[in-house]
Amino acid sequence: MHYNKKPLKILYLAFLLLLSPFIFAKNIVHELKGGVLINDQPAEMNQALAANDKIQTLHDGFIKVIFEDSAYSIKKNSVFVLPENTDESLGNLVKGSLIGAFKKGGERKLKISHGILSVRGTGVAVESGHDHSAVCLCYGEIDLNTEQEQISLSTENTKYHLVVHIDPAGDVYLPDLNSCKFDHWSVNNIELEKILNNSSPFKKGLAQFL
């Protein structure tokens, strides 16, 4: 007995088409809330993204994006310009704050108001402002270059979430923990790693940080 395989093949192709936005998604808007603009136009869910796109969140805006094996969670009142897919290209956090997760083994550069981060298989939270910038190395390692200093930070032999501030002159210093209220948690890092299909970067997993 012979079966007509053509209808099955059509159904299979239709199934792949339905799944394709999720399977092959690489440069897209993953989550969206409130007022968000991309290149000065209202953002949309699953919108395709390209190098040098400008993402702006308004006072009630929030967005998560996947771009070139990286994931970014961008908070309200922020402006972020996506990088090009080259080793020397800079993602530029013009102002505001974001959390980033980056593929293992690669390097991504991130510009903030008072310095440049070289990120390798790392989770970071950053704030970029006129009077100071702040960097939280949530896990992994980064190089931080400012007009005054070049330093490397690592959580290999320390606790997670190592925070430094950068003043307008480019000096890097450890902040008073009572005055440092970085608005993020380890669960936020873990959520971004899941988007990239990576395991939790924290040895004790999610439960420790809820």
Question: Mind sketching the topology for me?
Answer:
Layout: H1 6-23, E1 28-33, E2 36-38, E3 41-42, E4 54-57, E5 62-67, E6 70-74, E7 78-81, E8 90-102, E9 108-112, E10 115-128, E11 133-145, E12 150-154, E13 162-166, E14 172-173, H2 186-195
How can the largest sheet be summarized?
14 strands, mixed
Strand-residue proportion: 35-45%
CATH hierarchy: architecture: Sandwich
Helical percent range? 10-25%
Describe the structure.
The chain is mostly beta strands and 210 residues long. It has a single domain, classed as Jelly Rolls, CATH 2.60.120.1440. Helices cover 13% and strands 41% of the residues. The chain is built from 2 helices and 14 strands. The longest helix has 18 residues. The radius of gyration is 19 Å and the shape is globular. The C terminus is likely disordered. This is FecR protein domain-containing protein.
What attributes characterize this protein structure?
210 residues, mainly beta, Jelly Rolls, 14-stranded mixed sheet, 2 helices, 14 strands, globular, disordered C terminus, FecR protein domain-containing protein
